[in-house]
Amino acid sequence: MADARTTTLAAKPPGFLARALDSDVWASFTRSKLTMAAAAVTILFFAAALLAGLVSPQDPFNPAELELINSRLPPIWDAEGQRPFMLGTDDQGRDMLSAILYGLRISLLVGFMGVAFAATLGITLGLLAGYLGGVTDTLIMRIADVQLTFPAILIALLVDGVAKSVLGGHLDPATTLSVLVFSIGLSFWVQYARTVRGSVLVEKNKDYVAAARLIGLPAPVIMARHVLPNVLGPVLVIATINLALAIITEATLSFLGSGMPDTMPSLGTLIRIGNNYLFSGEWWIVAFPGIALALLVLAINLVGDWLRDALNPRLR
């Protein structure tokens, strides 16, 4: 009886965590010190954004906590610096560290939602184009080809301008955030659609898809349940890299005045505000948000580059 139990326990398959730690991907991750450092920085930024309400000295979005008498104070290591403003203050008396933490939360939120919208739209259209073929494939791919002729930032500016003309020039922060997500999503869906379409063209001719058709499963079920899980590898890589691009796009739109308002600034808005005071000597208002944005994008790009190589079977 004991032998049978021992055999059963020995035959039990390893769990997901054990398989992940024993995989080639994890081994590749632990061999790259640069990737581990980039992942640590990325996790640190994500944690700082999530815990901004707990670790920041003030709520920069609450006018009751702001005093104009504290505006444009230098960092604390400067002779004129004051506590608790470690990185100084901006023109409205906001603590720069608090503003960066809260702005980081908005930048990541817009980036994640924009990538999620682009991935959902692109994967859906890519599945339809690759699986159905014919007129559907031609129509979707020609639209994608036309969009590729325009830069992503130009499409985002166009969508933002149309939305403001339809909804009114002065939008509340929630509506502005939704417009940013929509414009960024429409700018990046083509990469997902083209990648998924190419993978579906290969997968739909395999035996498991033929077997699913043979037992009478409808096309939407076959695409969602059988084909989609086998094409998500490249999509994960694109999503990781596009997260950095989405954050940069949001920062660019905000810097140009088409993004988040001054009352609820993202990192791009903080950089735009600080740029007005750069030549008057208040360098910290633009420098620290710019450094935070550069480090965040660099870290995410390094993780995305590693993930692209780790999931490429030709490089294993």
Automatic annotation (TrEMBL):
<keyword id="KW-0812">Transmembrane</keyword>
<feature type="transmembrane region" description="Helical">
    <location>
        <begin position="235"/>
        <end position="256"/>
    </location>
</feature>
<keyword id="KW-0813">Transport</keyword>
<feature type="transmembrane region" description="Helical">
    <location>
        <begin position="283"/>
        <end position="307"/>
    </location>
</feature>
<dbReference type="InterPro" id="IPR035906">
    <property type="entry name" value="MetI-like_sf"/>
</dbReference>
<feature type="transmembrane region" description="Helical">
    <location>
        <begin position="106"/>
        <end position="133"/>
    </location>
</feature>
<dbReference type="Pfam" id="PF00528">
    <property type="entry name" value="BPD_transp_1"/>
</dbReference>
<feature type="transmembrane region" description="Helical">
    <location>
        <begin position="139"/>
        <end position="159"/>
    </location>
</feature>
<dbReference type="GO" id="GO:0055085">
    <property type="term" value="P:transmembrane transport"/>
</dbReference>
<comment type="similarity">
    <text>Belongs to the binding-protein-dependent transport system permease family.</text>
</comment>
<keyword id="KW-0472">Membrane</keyword>
<feature type="domain" description="ABC transmembrane type-1">
    <location>
        <begin position="104"/>
        <end position="304"/>
    </location>
</feature>
<dbReference type="Pfam" id="PF12911">
    <property type="entry name" value="OppC_N"/>
</dbReference>
<dbReference type="InterPro" id="IPR025966">
    <property type="entry name" value="OppC_N"/>
</dbReference>
<dbReference type="InterPro" id="IPR050366">
    <property type="entry name" value="BP-dependent_transpt_permease"/>
</dbReference>
<feature type="transmembrane region" description="Helical">
    <location>
        <begin position="171"/>
        <end position="190"/>
    </location>
</feature>
<keyword id="KW-1003">Cell membrane</keyword>
<keyword id="KW-1133">Transmembrane helix</keyword>
<dbReference type="InterPro" id="IPR000515">
    <property type="entry name" value="MetI-like"/>
</dbReference>
<dbReference type="GO" id="GO:0005886">
    <property type="term" value="C:plasma membrane"/>
</dbReference>
<protein>
    <submittedName>
        <fullName>ABC transporter permease</fullName>
    </submittedName>
</protein>
<feature type="transmembrane region" description="Helical">
    <location>
        <begin position="34"/>
        <end position="55"/>
    </location>
</feature>
